[in-house]
Every structure is written in C-alpha cells, then in structure tokens.
Amino acid sequence: MKKAKILVLNGPNLNLLGIRDTKLYGQKTLEYINNILKREAENLNFEISFFQSNCEGQIIDKIHEAYGVYRGIIINPGAYTHYSIAIRDAIASVEIPTVEVHLSNIYNREEFRTKSVIAPVCVGQISGFKEYGYILALFALHEMLNRRYENE
C-alpha cells in the first residue's frame, strides 16, 4: 500500500524552539518534534516531510508545491496566524486537508493572538498541548484520510 504524504510546515521563530521562551513553548527543539513525528508517521504508514521558514513567501510556495503531492498538511504558522491572508488563501486554494497547530494556548494569551485568520480554511486547530499538538494533528489527519478514502 502506497504511503500517504504529509507536509509539516513551521513558520517564523519556530527554529528557535528550546531556546525561545521555554516556559511558554517548552524545552523541546523543532528537531526533536520532527523526530517524534517521523516515528509516529511511520507507525501510521505516512511519508512525512518538514519545512520551516521565517519568510511568508517561502511558506506560501511550499503550500503551492504541495498541490497534487501531499494528502495532508500540518501547519504552525507562528505569528502569521494572526494576519497572513496570503497563507490563508494558499491553503484554501490547494484544498488539502490542513490542521493548524500551536504549542501554546493562543486563547490564553495576548488579545491579538486569540484571532486566527488561518483556522477558518483548516479542517481543525490544536492549541496548547506543546509538541503533542503535532502528534494529535497527525492522528487526526490519519483518521480523516482513512475515512475519506474508505468511502470512495
């Protein structure tokens, strides 16, 4: 059986995980998170790819490149969550099931962080569970994709 491909996108400053505000974001590095996701993806028969950028345009390009290649996207847009209509439009355009993830609970932070312009074009959002949010997103995509293709 061919493995479904999943793309994990991380936005600005997530390359500094484990260094940046560890009380809020935890002590795990992005490399650590990617490694646990890779193990879980193998268990779920997923092929997984990772990309991190501090540049909005590069994230948009990766979303465009995902069309016809990936069956699901997990995205932590970082600060772009709150104002990037361009990332929102890219996700909506490719029509790939996308789960938005945040390490911290964005609804328990500064008011400007409580609004996501990305969430309305995603199949769901997971917030506040540190690195486990990524794993939950992977499980959610697994269940969604299995149900979707069982019915075809």
From TrEMBL:
Statement: the UniProt record of this protein carries the keyword Lyase: yes
GO molecular function, one term: 3-dehydroquinate dehydratase activity
EC number of the protein: 4.2.1.10
SUPFAM superfamilies assigned: Type II 3-dehydroquinate dehydratase
Assigned keywords, A-Z: Amino-acid biosynthesis, Aromatic amino acid biosynthesis, Lyase
GO biological process: amino acid biosynthetic process; aromatic amino acid family biosynthetic process; chorismate biosynthetic process; quinate catabolic process
Site (Transition state stabilizer): R20
UniProt-listed Gene3D superfamilies: Dehydroquinase, class II
Top enzyme category: lyase
Catalysed reaction, written as an equation: 3-dehydroquinate = 3-dehydroshikimate + H2O
Any Pfam family the entry gives: DHquinase_II
Pathway membership: Metabolic intermediate biosynthesis; chorismate biosynthesis; chorismate from D-erythrose 4-phosphate and phosphoenolpyruvate: step 3/7
Alphabetical list of InterPro entries matching this protein: DHquinase_II (IPR001874), DHquinase_II_CS (IPR018509), DHquinase_II_sf (IPR036441)
Flavoprotein as UniProt keyword: no
Domain of life assignment: Bacteria
Residues noted as binding substrate in the record, renumbered to the chain: N76, H82, D89, L103, S104, R113
Matching HAMAP family: AroQ (MF_00169)
Similarity remark: Belongs to the type-II 3-dehydroquinase family.
Main function: Catalyzes a trans-dehydration via an enolate intermediate.
NCBIfam families per UniProt: aroQ (TIGR01088), PRK05395.1-2 (NF003805), PRK05395.1-3 (NF003806), PRK05395.1-4 (NF003807)
Name the UniProt record assigns to this protein: 3-dehydroquinate dehydratase
Gene transcribed to yield this protein: aroQ
